[in-house]
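User: Teach me something about this protein's shape.
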Amino acid sequence: MTALTLSTSSAAALRADAVVVGVAKGAKGPVVAAGAEAVDKAFGGKLAAVLETLGATGAEGEVTKLPAASGLKAPVVLAVGLGDVPAKDDGYDAETLRRAAGTASRALSGSKKGAFALPIEDVASAAAVAEGALLGAYTYDKSNGNGGNAKDGKNAKNVKNVKDTDKKNNGPLAEVALVGGKPRDKAYKAAAERATALVEEINRARDLINTPSNLLNPADFAAEAVAAAKEHGLKTEVLDEKALKKGGYGGILGVGQGSEAPPRLVRIAYTHPKAEKTLALVGKGITYDSGGISLKPAGHNETMKCDMSGAAAVFATVVAAARLGLRVNLTGWLALAENMPSGSATRPGDVLSMYGGKTVEVLNTDAEGRLVLADAITRAGEEKPDAIVDVATLTGAMVLALGNRTFGIMTNDEAFRTSLHEIAEEAGEQSWPMPLPTHLRKGIDSPVADLANMGERMGGGLVAGIFLKEFVADGITWGHLDIAGPAFNEAGPFGYTPKGGTGAAVRTLVRLAERAADGDLG
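Assistant: First, the predicted structure itself:
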C-alpha cells in the first residue's frame, strides 16, 4: 500500500522523484493552479508559458512532464490537467481533485515518492487529493500458483499481491506527500487516516475482484473473510453446503449445485457499544458465472470472475467500518457460489424452494444473482436492521441504461433512494435513481411457483429489483445498488480508476455507514 504523509515543506524544498502541480484550462491558455506557487516561482513565473509551449492545455486528465528548474529539490515537475478554471471563489470540487491526483499517481508508477502540490484549501480538499492519489497508485500483481484444493479454501493464500511475478510491473508509487497538509492538525490527521483505511479496503476489494476464479472459489472467499475478521475483531459465521441444506437456502444451493466448488453464506459483523443504528449489507458473490445451463456465449464470459464484486464491496465496507471505529452496527452477508453447467446443475424450468419458504421457477439460470441475494436478504431481515442494502453486478440491462461508469439505485422508500443518491455523489461515485414500476411485477408471476426469476425483457434491470423486493420483510427500509457497469473496467485506466476491478460502491457504503453512525439514514 502506498504510504501517505502530510508535509509542511514547500513544494520547492521537498525531496521527491517528482512534484505534482495542477494546471487548469483558461480562456487564453493553461493556468497554473493554487498550490504550485513555489514551483512557478522557480520557473520565474513562467511555468504556464513553458507548459503551453510543450502542448499542455489544462484539459482534465492531461499529463505533462518536464525537467525541474533550478531551486527545486525534485528533478521532475508533473503537471496534471484540472479542466476548466472554476468560477471565482468556487474552487475545485472534490471529484476533480480526486481524479487529478489519481492521474498523477498512475503517471508516477514505479517511483519512490511524489510531492503533491495540488490546490488544498481545507480538510475536505486535502482528503480528496489523498483519496485520489492513493486510489490511483493501485496495481494488481499477477497471482502465482496453479490453484489448490477446489473445495476447502486453500487457495485463499493466493489472494494477495505477490511481488516479483511480473517484470513489466514496476509497482505502485511508494509514497504520496501532501504539500499543504497539516500533520499537527487533528482534522487533517483524521482525514489522512480515513483516506488510508478507506483506500486499503477498496484495494482489498479490487484484489479479490481481479483474482482469477481458479484461485478464488466460494470457500476461498469465505476463508479470506474469516482471516480479516480475526485481524480486525469481527464476528463471522460461515454456512457450508451442509448447513445451507439444513437451513433451507434453496437459492444459494440451486445456483451452486452445478459446480465442484460448493457455495457458502458468510455473515461478517462489526458492532459498536454505543451504536444506535444497525445496517445490513448483502453482496452478490458469484466467484465465476458461466451462466449455468443457460450458458453465456463466447465474448461474454471472459471477465466473469468479477461477478463477486458486490460481495467484495460489502466485505471491504465492514472491515473499513471497524478500522474507522464507526458508531454503527454493521452486518455483511456474502452470498457466495460458482454458477457452472453440469449434470447436477439447476435446469431452466426447475423450481427452487428459497430460504423463508417462497418458491421460484428458474426460467434462466444466468439470472442467478437474484437467487443468491434473495436467500441472503431474507436471512438479513430476520435480524430486524434499520435498513438493508444489497450490492450486485446484477444485470446487463443496467449497463445498457446507464453505461459503464454509473450504478443504478432502487429502493422501497423514495426518501432512502434520494439519500443513497446524495451519498454516492458526495463520495464521488456516479449513480442514478431508478424506479420500480408496479406494472412490471405481473411479469414475474409463475404458474408453478410463487414467482419466476425472469420477467419482461425490456426494463430487465428494474425487473430484477422488483424480484428482490419480494424478499424484503415488511417494515424494513431496503436499497439495491446494481453496479454491473462500474464494477469492472475493461477499458483503459482513467483518473484514479484502474483497469480491472474498481471497488465500486465501497465509498458509498462507507459514507452510508458514517451517516448511520450520526443517526441519519435519510
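Now, about its shape. Confidence is low (pLDDT under 50) at residues 144-151, 160-168. Residues 11 and 129 are 15 Å apart (CA to CA). If you'd like, I can walk through any region in more detail.
User: That's plenty for now, thanks!
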